[in-house]
Write a structure and sequence with these properties.
single chain; about 70 residues; mainly alpha; 1 helix; elongated
Length: about 70
């Protein structure tokens, strides 16, 4: 979806954000977006590691039953 934005599109989005939110709110908005992405990344990593752990447990059970 965002593959085709390019530099001019990114600059346009930043200018529109600057106009809409103003220079005083932009750092707060950036921090909020950053913390949200960090939390999403950590949650995704936890889900993936839980799935891998469950798969390892089921593989170990299958090996023991044989």
């Amino acid at each position: 979806m965002f593959q085709n934005i390019g530099i001019p599109g990114l600059i346009l989005v930043l200018v529109i954000a600057l106009i809409v939110f103003g220079p005083s709110k932009l750092p707060e908005l950036g921090r909020a977006v950053g913390s949200t992405l960090k939390e999403f990344k950590n949650s995704t990593r936890d889900l993936v590691s839980d799935d891998e752990t469950d798969q390892e447990k089921s593989n170990n059970k299958n090996e023991k039953s044989m």
